[in-house]
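FW: tagging you since you asked about this chain on Friday. Here's the raw sequence from the shared folder, copied in full. Didn't touch anything.
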Amino acid sequence: MLNGLDDIDWRSLEHNYGSAENIPGLLRTAARDEVAFDSNDGLYNQLHHQGGWVCSAATAALPFLLDLIESPIAADRTEHVELIARLACTAAEATPEWVDAGWPEAWATVFPRVRRLIDDPDENVRREVTSALGASRHQPAEAVAALRTRFGREPVAIVRADILKALEDLGDRDGIRVLGDHADPSVAIDAMLRAHALDGTTVDAAELGAVLTALRETTDWDVFRPVHGGDSKALTSTDYVAVVTMLAGHAEAERRLAAVRLATRVLAEGRDCEERLVPPIAALLDDPETRFHALQLLAALAAPYPDRFAAMLDDDTLHGRYVVATVGDAALWALVRTGDARCVPVLRELVADGDRHSRSYSPATHISWLPSIGEMLEQVGAEHVPTLLPAVRARLADGGRDARFDYLATLKSWGVLAAEAGPEVKALLETETGTVARQALDAIAPSEVSAPETADLTDEDPWTRTRAAVRLWRSTGESAEATRVLRGVVAEVLDDGRYGLTVGREALSRLAEMGAGEAAPEARRVLGEERRLSDGGGWRRFVDDDAWRRAAVRILEA
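HL: got it, structure written out here
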């Protein structure tokens, strides 16, 4: 095992954290059961981490990872197979410049060893190998043959589902169509959906009925993950509304929770199903098992149920594994999003003694966290700022680091409405929060803003151009040039997507603040977008999209 490990110049190779000279030690350690865990974790992080590229060290390590998997003494075989599968998938999905040049040849060399693992007695190994075979785009015929053969003798339903997905990834229409007549309804329906996906078609009414019946009655819940997870291309958004409605009324709590997750996934992609999906989710507010999660989605949507939200403000039922929050916390956020004044006294108390100041970011679609207190404050109406500002000023003066960062960002969002907080903000300019304090001061006291460097207005970076245009307008009152620059940023973001949507939203918001009616073409374009205009995940996806559209409306009303 690990023969030839020292024949490789590992120092000349690289992984996610630099030189690969430590990889031999990690591989040797991984072969010893008693100390394997940290080594395996290190191999995964350094050779793959979050994916996106296949490094040269991964290519060199590939045969040795197979040695570990085939060894009778090495621990955590499944983790090594998972690493190989993730690397194979990355190699199949990434553009060539992000895949080490030696990877295709290395994969072809070990492919027979990988293929043999499809018959491993460990079902978790078989699941990961199935994914790896599905990514074997340079050996499609051999991979398809191995997968088809295994399917005929695979006893585990979820592994059969994985094989079907791998066959779809490899474009095996014939193999999938044959399975559409399988005696097991779960297999037949899964095959039918994947055949539609390969053909670019969607289910008809009878097929949708079969899907709903199977999903309602199945005991193999994970087999239907492409449906209740929102990944099946064979279903339209209207089909997914039917799935959500059925799941929301299911007797099992797990499936009712799946209804919320699926509705979140569908609504995160676009707005066309919102009116039809809100009612079944709102009905789950009466369900103790789903109330918290339903509140999170309804809050993100600013759904119009303020009385129901207000009635739950005192509910201290706890939810959350990592960041614990109560039903009342989620209800407060929902009330804030509706613009209801009953949120203001509760927010004022939270500012005074609350400690939720972490601003979490994730690209994940599901809503797994609540906003910080400062982020909630950013969503209140302008009419409530005078009531809340004194409490914010007090926390800036005597609060901790996290609270100050949180509330300085709030003041930046409030802008000139928070001008009275100038003294507290200026006091923080020379502290560790100084950069954010300067940004907040520029927003709340525009008369004190200095003019930008002329070159910044034509800088390649859209953030630099946006900030320079705003500084130009605030320092001189010159709006024509600032408007031209900001309109260019918005158009650039919407046209090619090379830059994040966040900078485009900032540019459009400043155009709205300026009353720049000249930006009406961009505003109309924004309002015509069917997608959610956000790079963020969770609740940000919805709030960011709302901000784009509010700014567009203000511009058209200017």
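FW: The beta strands are 14-15, 18-19, 318-319, 325-326.
HL: agreed, and The chain has a mean pLDDT of 93.
FW: great, closing this out.
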